[in-house]
Design a protein that fits this description.
alpha/beta, binds iron/sulfur cluster, binds S-adenosyl-L-homocysteine
Length: about 350
Amino acid sequence: MNKWNKLDKKNMVKLLLSEDKTVLTELQQAAYKVKNREVGNKVFYRGIIEFSNICSKNCYYCGIRKGNQQVKRFRMQPQEILECAEFAWKQNYGSLVLQSGERTDSEFVDFVEDILLRIKKMSNNELGITLSLGEQSEETYRRWFQAGAHRYLLRIETSNSQLYRTLHPQDHDFDYRFECLKILAKLGYQVGTGVMIGLPGQTAEMLADDIIFFQENDIDMIGMGPYIPHKQTPLASQAKNWNKQKQLQLGLKMIALARLYLQDVNIAATTALQALHPEGREFGLQAGANVIMPNITHTKYRDSYKLYDGKPCTNENARMCRVCLEGRIGKIGEEIGYNMWGDSPHFKKKQKQERKDA
Ligand code: SAH
Ligand code: SF4
């Protein structure tokens, strides 16, 4: 039995703290092998449309928090969102992600429902749709599911409720966020979650617990990335020892550990990695990730959707993003899963099991 199959909290913590280059290279190579065995050598694209930066929340780390008055707020028109979706479809991207600030008012809920129906119709039901629109009521999640969304990404941010409290105002409720993950799974969504890595006050033990949390809650997809300070937020002043290189390494270690521990889930190489290094996402793929989210938002809005400082590609259009990504992915020996939804094998196995049990 190889040593990477026997990961537990103690040796995950050890690896998270290790600076031994040989060990870390071995760790990533082992994770890459498991990725190829469990989910194949295809990288799946989810074209991400960041359609509005209007947010009713005030997370201390986020650049588009309600309290940041320096942000110019926008909401894309339905027609503009459809144009981006059509671009993704014509480029044979299998899936889309619709992301925005959090709103729960009925105008917003109706707006999203309508857009889902229109994207499904425009693409003959071919585009898979992931939503990343924060905490909502069960009824809202149900309506959006019925309108065509089939995956939902809601990061728990940290599985440690005490740390969560230091990152959010008091009325941001950890327990309800956790509850949302359960509601989403119950409704039939493929459920994605994740954390920010390298937050002020976060320890290696907490990060190892995050990975265990993903397993205990039977999560299908992981989207996690390094925390990057945004100057206009309260948390930035607590990130004095923040170091780009260390954050990148920690982010890659977490991807590799998650792959080794969870095996058959989808794991995204997030844009935050690329913000730390031009090849950050490729490093993520080499450490065990299998999903990439190219930004297909209209260029004119990208500058206003900055969750953190130094976000890459804000002045590149979607076509340029595609060309540059294709080259980078080919270079590291991976293929792109065009025209495929690329569902999480973990989710598919669960569905099979449920059918057997029924
Ligand atoms: N409003 C939705 C989706 C948009 S925010 C939500 O909060 O779920 C998407 C993710 O961006 C958040 O979950 C958070 O993990 C990440 N994020 C926000 N600020 C960040 C920062 N400064 N550094 C890294 N990631 C950040
Ligand atoms: Fe809003 Fe999401 Fe940013 Fe929190 S992380 S302020 S909910 S956009």
